[in-house]
Protein 1
Amino acid sequence: EVKNLEAIFDARIDRDEKIEPKDWMPEKYRQTHIRQISQHAHSEIVGMLPEGNWITRAPSLKRKVALLAKIQDEAGHGLYLYSACETLGVSREELYEQLHSGKAKYSSIFNYPTLTWADMGAIGWLVDGAAIINQVPLCSTSFGPYARAMVRVCKEESFHQRQGFQIMMTLAEGTPEQKEMAQDALNRWWWPALMMLGPLDAESVHTEQSMKWKLKRKSNDDLRQQFVDQTVPQAKMIGLTIPDPDLKWNEEKQSYDFGEMNWDEFWQVVKGHGPCNKERISARVNAWEKGKWVRDAAMAYAEKQANKEVK
Ligand code: FAQ
């Protein structure tokens, strides 16, 4: 009977139908979606921390307002994604527990430090830039709640990317020191941003199955190529240099060739040994523990209200 259900399911995927939470789905489909959607949610939440570091030091009121709004958007994305994930039968408490205990992964990129204001520019421009390239195809992913969440998320990411590029542009047009600060941020964020799109296709264990299920619509390498081709002209436009001596326009393939990434560094960061992994997790655990009294008070209040209604 499961064989039969599986054939019907596969046919629905072939027809590009959306799979909804109450529909039958193979257990592996459910598990792989819980994995990817929860990693994505954790990334949004942990991703607030590097930028949170600069809220009190933004150079003007306008910059501070925009940065605050961006970080709040990220909180919203995290909450959407946790909700989408919960429709697959996992509770939010379990997901938080997985993050806080170090069991769950989140994007490697958020384990790097934010050393100067220019890093706010580089994150918006490069990290949100890479996130959009990865997430636009996810708007047509096969699982309905994930696909629908991505539509709004992508619109907001697009504002974030412009916000970051505008910071970089302003710095690059500024004093020599400001331009140097922008270049230094680009130097530090370029390679981590490329690696954020995941291991090489040849090393990517999930791509083949995820493509069949239309969870992933493009491979890691295709997305990376698209990111490079889109970003190199933007760097040129503002007079900054991509820190890659092997970067070269390839006339034949009509796109850029680029250098090799440091995959040892990537896997070290993914395994928890990046520059800020410990700091990020302890910030989350701390926020959770410090917020306990708020959760307790809200529960006590809700119980009191419920009792009142009975009388
Ligand atoms: N970091 O076989 P694949 C954002 C793991 S949101 C850590 O290629 P898959 C917004 C992978 O989980 C950024 N781990 O895996 C923002 C797997 O391990 P597992 C997050 C990584 O799933 C901006 C193993 O390596 N976006 O930036 C990474 O097919 C600014 C093998 O890899 C998403 O999560 C990595 N970079 O492809 C917020 C998008 N890459 O699970 C604040 C949704 C791979 O077996 C500020 N996710 N791994 O233990 C995806 O599209 C996919 O999951 C990929 C990875 C493409 C990330």
Protein 2
Amino acid sequence: KIDGKDNYKHYIPEMNEDSHNIYFLEKDMRLALEKEEFYLEYQPKIDVKTKKVIGCEALIRWTHPKRGIVSPAQFIPIAEESDLICDIGNWVIKKVCKQLKKWHLEGINTVPVSINISAQHLLKTSLLDTIFTALKANHVSPSLLELEITETSLIQPNQSVFSTIRSLKKLGVKLSLDDFGVGYSSLTHIRKFPLDTLKIDKSFISKVPTEKDDAVIISSIIEMAHGLGLTILAEGVETEEQLLFLEEKNCDHIQGFLFSKPISNDHFKQALISGELI
Ligand code: C2E
Ligand code: CA
Ligand code: CA
Ligand code: CA
């Protein structure tokens, strides 16, 4: 690793603080994968009508040995600059499948878990095999796994993205479109994909019911999604007012701090057993 050290000495003087941070975070993320410094939290998804937990989203967490907790909003974009995001994604897939197996063996009535898949990862032809292998190795039903993808993945899809998505669908894995409303939100390209769920971005939810425009946009998104046979989930629900509004507009599922923050696997297990949050 002498070369690495030389590079480091050579580059440091030209680096500003940001690129310096990026350089170290990337290096540390590779180590973090080896040393198991990453872990997952699970945020419950709630059915608006029954108020029952119907699923959850796995969210990655990192306790850095020196920096302490580093937010995914900080390190995921850096990981997305390289192949590292695929290594992280593969780690998450395996971890979630192992967790689902564990809950099953413990006699827990499990719910589907969603995983965030970055655009670069979806481009990998190996993704399908990784998912298939992880499900099989842990005897997990594909219907217990959901992939959350963003529109970036679908804007200029190549043949392999289409074929990966089709194969995943055939296998029984669920597919949801994350952060809906902030990107292109083009209905035409959405129609080409076998989606199950649209997740309305939290930036819309945070402004209802006060902002009239956002309220109108949300109602039409819900109506449109239902017209297309899609389930609709609102993310970032923090207040009773927002919940009431979404109930009135027939939103199917919600996720947000009003019901629960992302919680540890043990805490989520307790919620599944007792049927109660917090
Ligand atoms: P996202 O996929 O949109 O995830 C939802 C984010 O909103 C999470 O932030 C969650 O903690 C937060 N959130 C949930 N409910 C509320 C609420 O009521 N109010 C507010 N203000 N926020 C809420 P988190 O965990 O910090 O993750 C940030 C982003 O990092 C995620 O956004 C996702 O894009 C990315 N990310 C997280 N975990 C993974 C992962 O395992 N793989 C990949 N590729 N990306 C991930
Ligand atoms: Ca997500
Ligand atoms: Ca989101
Ligand atoms: Ca996001």
Protein 3
Amino acid sequence: AKNHGRGVHRFFEPILAAQIRDRRSLEHDLRHAVERNEFRVVYQPQMAIDTGIVVGFEALLRWQHPERGNVSPDRFIPISEETGSILGIGEWVLRETCREAASWDKPLRIAVNVSAVQLHAPGFAELVHEVLFTTGLSPARLELEITETALVRDPVRALAALRRVKAMGVRIAMDDFGTGYSSLSNLRAFPFDKIKIDRSFIRAVDVNHETAAIMRAVLGLGRGLGLPVLAEGVETSAELAFLGAEHCHEAQGYLLGRPGPIAAFAEHTRDAAGR
Ligand code: C2E
Ligand code: CA
Ligand code: CA
Ligand code: CA
């Protein structure tokens, strides 16, 4: 058994070592990515389903690595959360998006993803306040998207931070609703202004009976709690038609627009007459 164990060890070691080296190099590069100007923000429209009007945008981070090319946020956000570099990155995203939104002709909403690490860091509410003041963005136009995992780490601290930003007039959305362990009790315990239902519940909602039943239940929940519901990841017009018929408030997804540079959405952010 001992020899067998050593053999397995020798077999896996090079692969593991390469993975660790790869991870270390990403950790290192992430620490310098802000100052090296490697991040940019893309914007994805959020639409009111009954009117078909774009009411806001979600800001999504993109990292253009000098050698690796585009690295997905699903890969680099967790690493930056573990090393703490998310604090500088998150501050950059918040500042960049608030400045951008403050420059629009129309007072559309801007939704910014906030990591658990940011929410729990001392001074988070002060940072939001300072960025709003510096950029001149009206607090009512800022929405922070928080996932449930952000709340479980230290619920008392998370609640205190959310209350402080809410007191400024900033809105709070529960992101990826339905994918966590205790979505329902978290809805009651935290001061959310909106439910963003995860795209896994939207997929084929128009043909799948189980998915449709869950979707109707969430919409009923939203109505009962007085919270608007946004459906994420809408890809087909049949999905959108189902959501409209069930009185879902807002939708976001490839059908309505892929995330892109804000210039691609100037028809929504700018007044007519080519300003
Ligand atoms: P999320 O907050 O749930 O963002 C939605 C993700 O779904 C985005 O992926 C978006 O591009 C994608 N998406 C939008 N519409 C559709 C659709 O119709 N179909 C499909 N299949 N996907 C769609 P993205 O941009 O790769 O971001 C992945 C995750 O990374 C985000 O999930 C969020 O958790 C995180 N993230 C992105 N930007 C930031 C950021 O600035 N800060 C933090 N803390 N996290 C971020
Ligand atoms: Ca989000
Ligand atoms: Ca989401
Ligand atoms: Ca997600």
